[in-house]
Amino acid sequence: MVRYLWAAGLARLADETVAVAVVLLALSRSGSTALSGAVIAAYTVPSVLSGPLLGAWLDRTRRPVAALAANQFTLAAMAVAMVFAPAPWLVPAAFVAGITLPMTSGGFTSLVPRLATDLNRATSQDALLFNAAAVTGPGLAGVLSTAASPAVAVAAVAVLASAGGLCT
User: Fold this and answer.
1) Measured distance CA(80)–CA(70) in Å, rounded
2) What is the pTM of this model?
3) What CATH number does domain 2-167 carry, 1.20.1600.10, 1.20.1250.20, 1.10.760.10, 2.70.70.10?
4) Is the pLDDT of residue 48 over 90?
5) What was the pLDDT predicted at 103?
6) H-state helical runs in 31-149
């Protein structure tokens, strides 16, 4: 369960950091609030569409852990792409990254009953990590963007997602 908590915690921190980081990156690259809005829409809209499909697929797949790891590596790859991409390419990269959102959110939680010996405690730990990431991620994006640059904040997403994938 410890390995799960590391994987889920890192993955969720990456996921909660990316939304603020990519908006700041788009704004810093283009100066356009319209592009920034398009980037966050491209990141969030796919999860509405892909969430139910990916959730059903993850429940049926024989290798959910491998699927979650691949999901994290996809997020990391898109974050790296965004660090180097020109401003207009942030939208499609954010769209692909957005497809990963449902598996990071509910996908990891779906493993808890399979892994836990004490389900109540494991569920509490999972919820604590989820909430900690939700509070910490946006702040981390802001601090890194201010102290270094929005590109550094997006690069941190790649590092966190990769670490989450490796722990998975």
Assistant:
1) 15
2) 0.93
3) 1.20.1250.20
4) no
5) 85
6) 33-60, 64-84, 90-99, 101-102, 108-109, 112-115, 119-147
